[in-house]
Amino acid sequence: MRPVTRNTWSGRSAGSARSTWLGRNARGARGAAELSVAFDWPSRMGIDSDSPRARGLVGIGGTAVDSIDDMRILFGGVPLRGVSTRLTIDTPGVALLLLYHLVQEEQGRAIRRCSVLLRSAGRAGADEDRLIARVVRFGAAEGIRISLATPGSVPAPESWPLDLPAAPEPPSPAALRQAERLAKLRAWRCHERVDAALGLLRGAAEADGAGLPAMRAALATGATIGEVSTVLRAARAAAARTAHRSGGRAGPPP
Predict the structure, then answer these.
(1) What are the pLDDT digits (tens) for 5-15?
(2) Which terminus in the chain has less CB density within 10 A, N or C?
């Protein structure tokens, strides 16, 4: 049996440094390697790094990913042949899985060596149950192993908190660099394509309750995880208001 080397990235460095670290550890593994990637709190909550809610939290406990460009940089130069990737995400940050899926397709790699630890927020309702069911079906169709966990069911790493910390710190150099990259992304992307894709996502979310294909399409145009999450939250809030006025049940079945 060939040895398996597990390497976990959980740090503050810029995207190029993250990619270099991942590549060096994958190449240095004797036999198969498993790269376990943790994301920071804002990314896992579907919050952009330049949002006031992310202040002082960017890069803490994991790497910051706001868009497909960040995911490209993260895995750029990583020899994925023979390497297994493990992602840890929370249900509000499902867009991270879709970004990884897009980047793997761009590289022409079959996604057959990827596993995901999907952590519930611990206050599951119909919307989250529906989203989890869709993600599990997506994983089954794409050959991605999805494991489910709730707070307390797995050891709590530094980046576990699911609620906004009470006293965020000032922006770090890493946060400032990430904000600059977001500004460049928004300046150079095609706004018509992004707006159209977000509009389609809004309609899909209102009708479907999850809208994974439309979410994936929006992310492919350069929409950020924060923009996608904002659309989803607004669609779910609108569906809840409609259900309340009609006295019915919000959302379609899982």
Answers:
(1) 444 444 444 45
(2) N
What secondary structure letter does DSSP report for 11? -
Q: What's this model's pTM, rounded to 2 decimal places?
A: 0.81
Residue 31 lies in a domain: yes
Residues 243-253: tens digit of each pLDDT: 667 765 555 54
Number of domains observed in the structure of the chain: 1
Encoded tokens for 171? 């922006």
User: CB–CB of 107/80 below 8 Å?
Assistant: yes
In a domain, 242, yes or no: no
Task: Please name the residues in contact with 137: beta carbons below 8 A apart, sequence gap of 6 or more.
Answer: none
For 51, phi and psi rounded to 5 degrees? Answer: -75, 145
The SS3 of residue 250 is coil
Residue 231 is assigned to a structural domain of this protein: no
Q: Print the domain residue range for 25.
A: 5-160+170-187
Please report, as a single letter, which amino acid is at residue 68: I
